[in-house]
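Morning. Coffee machine broken again, so started the prediction first thing and wrote up yesterday's gels while waiting. Chain of 199 residues, entered below exactly as on the submission form.
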Amino acid sequence: MTTTNLPTYDKVFFVHYQCQHFDLGEQIFSMCVEHNNKIKQFDCEPCEASMIEQYCELVTSYCKQGLTPIHWNQNAKYYGIDHICHRYKTLTGREITLEYPNEIDLPSTLIDLLGDDYVPHPRLDSLATLNNIKGHSSEYESRTYPTQRIMLMAKVYHKLLNSKLKIGALPQTIDAPKADGTKPTKSFYDFLLHADKVA
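Came back before lunch.
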């Protein structure tokens, strides 16, 4: 896979939602959809089921327009489509339809392009640090966290498409620092050049 195989920024939209810790419950607090730098956020107040309905309606609308959904690890029973649909049925007793056709799981795509060790875990937070983007896990309790998180994903994808995504070790985890104790991060373009030389 190469970045040329990925849809352009105007042909994708990003999805993210915030829920209870997986060991504590299934409640969904907030759901976000981002397209072309515009965010639509849905909150569980006053009605969690209504929030899920609005989210599913917007996602379906974007998919019908031919846009590709991008998410971060929404492919598990406890987090993603299965969880959202199950939560809705628990709340209402009714089924709801939600699909991510031609979806892009961003972490899997990054691994395919950059290798498994392109940044330390947690990868999304490491990318935020390396690329000076808001949206760290330490901001989880802030009211703006859900929107910052989805913008983080969008900015990572945008930088990836434009070969400007910085990858590598975080400063405190570098094994062989330079004389000044630091090591410059690598852009995706530098990574490709290195890969070509190795090949």
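Residues 48-64 form the longest helix (17 residues). Going to sketch it on the whiteboard this afternoon.
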